[in-house]
Write a structure and sequence with these properties.
Layout lengths: L1 H34 L2 H13 L1 H17 L8 H13 L9
Helix pairs in contact: 1-3, 2-3, 2-4
């Protein structure tokens, strides 16, 4: 009986996490529809296919800018590329050999 209860609780937790993730994704999608020009949205969609983690990071960053009121107007594809370069430069990994 205890194992069944544990399995049920784990399943419920997984479902809650999944629903929270879906809500976050829906919110980010709504925000990106508001602040991105069509070509920038296309680029973001392509990025989601290739690098979903980078796309999620970008969407979170854009949402922060939007909520902070730092965005004036919609973001063009060129601006999105500049933001991507900025975010990807932070992720440079350097390996030192001794």
């Amino acid at each position: 009986m205890e194992e069944e209860e544990i399995k049920k609780r784990l399943l419920q937790q997984q479902m809650q996490q999944q629903m929270q993730q879906q809500q976050i994704e829906a919110t980010l999608k709504t925000i990106s529809m508001q602040i991105l020009e069509p070509r920038a949205r296309e680029r973001l969609a392509n990025l989601k296919v290739v690098k979903p983690d980078m796309a999620m990071q970008l969407e979170a960053y854009l949402a922060q800018l939007h909520h902070a009121g730092q965005l004036r107007g919609r973001i063009s594809e060129e601006q999105l590329i500049a933001i991507l370069k900025k975010l990807s430069s932070k992720r440079d990994i350097r390996i030192r050999r001794k």
